[in-house]
TrEMBL record:
InterPro entries, per the entry: YhjD-like
Pfam families reported for this sequence: YhjD (PF26325)
Superkingdom as given in the UniProt entry: Bacteria
Name this polypeptide is given: Uncharacterized protein
Length: 131
């Protein structure tokens, strides 16, 4: 009999599906600020290029996550009935026919997004230095 609780991989994919769009939004907001700011042409173009590449990488990862979840028949949606309740963001998901809830504390999400942003920046830096 299949387990009711999601596996470690399924849990990872569910969390990625929830967190990556937030990360994209943060990076896109920073990109908009860079485009409207005056940082000096060469640096501004460099920052915009790197930031655009980062958004592309995050979107590519999100595409893989979405496909994996679709293959696993896992459906996820934001729980609008709990919007604004407490200090968390709530999601519901169905995995192997069972419905579950995922609550992410806003402070925890901010910290996690900062860590993820650092990892994407490190990946880009590694690629540039390997060049």
């Amino acid at each position: 009999m299949a387990s009711v609780t999601p596996t470690e991989v399924e849990t990872f994919l569910i969390r990625e599906y929830v967190m990556l769009p937030f990360l994209i939004k943060i990076v896109e907001n920073n990109l908009d600020k860079m485009k409207s700011g005056d940082y000096g042409r060469p640096l501004q173009e460099l920052y915009i290029g790197i930031t655009t590449k980062m958004i592309d990488r995050i979107n590519a990862d999100l595409t893989i996550v979405r496909k994996s979840l679709r293959d696993l028949r896992i459906k996820i949606w934001e729980d609008k009935s709990k919007a604004g309740v407490g200090n968390a963001i709530y999601y519901r998901y169905v995995c192997r026919g069972y419905e579950h809830e995922l609550a992410i504390l806003r402070e925890q999400a901010k910290a996690e997004l900062g860590t993820r942003l650092g990892k994407y920046a490190q990946r880009l830096e590694d690629e540039l230095t390997r060049g």
